[in-house]
Design goal:
heterodimer, A: 116 residues, mainly beta, 6-stranded mixed β-sheet, 4-stranded antiparallel β-sheet, 0% helix, globular, B: 112 residues, 7-stranded mixed β-sheet
Chain lengths: 116, 112
């Protein structure tokens, strides 16, 4: 079945450092790929997405590129802020699963802490 | 601006007790979902409802039942709670399968 493997955390960075969180996936078809963010005490929020190979999703300074050849969707940000401290989840949605409902398969999450 | 609302936010149950987690969305979404979040395992789908009147099992449905009461509400019931059901439960909704899923704030459930 489908699966998502994420870089294990926790990750601790200083403010303005460069961030990479690795994500690779296994899927039978051509999935859509997502990054969700969970701030303390809150639910998950969609950060960015990509629906086909070579698409780049971007939002709030974060970027990720859908790489079909390496089955990867790594999250990057050039200069992190304290306010970026959160848990980040990589996820996929397989178009061949779930019928008319979108089923998301999640990675295990990566805790990011940014120090001032 | 409520979005997806879950109640309660916290709950402690004794083994064998039953309870229902409530979820309501005010975005007129067709699809609703229940996930559980466990340390080191990400979120796993328990049940989903593609539209009002339909429900289907997800990856980990054992020990749970659901009811899609109407288009707004989707409840999750634990008939006889077990310690293995200690988790954080998230409800989510989406307009269609191709649109963004919105999540509630979660219910932290502890079964002792």
């Amino acid at each position: 079945g489908d699966s998502v493997t994420q870089m294990e955390g926790p990750v601790t960075l200083s403010e303005e450092a460069f961030l990479t969180i690795n994500c690779t996936y296994t899927a039978t078809g051509y999935p859509s790929l997502f990054w969700y963010v969970q701030y303390p005490g809150e639910g998950l929020q969609l950060l960015l997405k990509a629906t086909k190979a070579d698409d780049k999703g971007s939002n709030k300074g974060f970027e990720a590129t859908y790489r079909k050849e390496t089955t990867s969707f790594h999250l990057e940000k050039g200069s992190v802020q304290v306010s970026d401290s959160a848990v980040y989840f990589c996820a996929l949605s397989d178009p061949y699963q779930g019928g008319s409902a979108r089923q998301l398969t999640f990675g295990s999450g990566t805790q990011l802490t940014v120090l001032p | 601006n409520a979005g997806v609302t879950q109640t309660p936010k916290f709950q402690v149950l004794k083994t064998g007790q039953s309870m229902t987690l409530q979820c309501a969305q005010d975005m007129n979404h067709n699809s609703m979902y229940w996930y559980r979040q466990d340390p080191g395992m990400g979120l796993r789908l328990i049940y989903y409802s593609a539209s009002e009147g339909t429900t289907d099992k997800g990856e980990v449905p054992n020990g749970y039942n659901v009811s899609r009461l109407n288009k707004r509400e989707f409840s999750l019931r634990l008939e006889s709670a077990a310690p293995s059901q200690t988790s954080v439960y998230f409800c989510a909704s989406s307009a269609t399968r191709d649109t963004e899923a919105f999540f509630g704030q979660g219910t932290r459930l502890t079964v002792v």
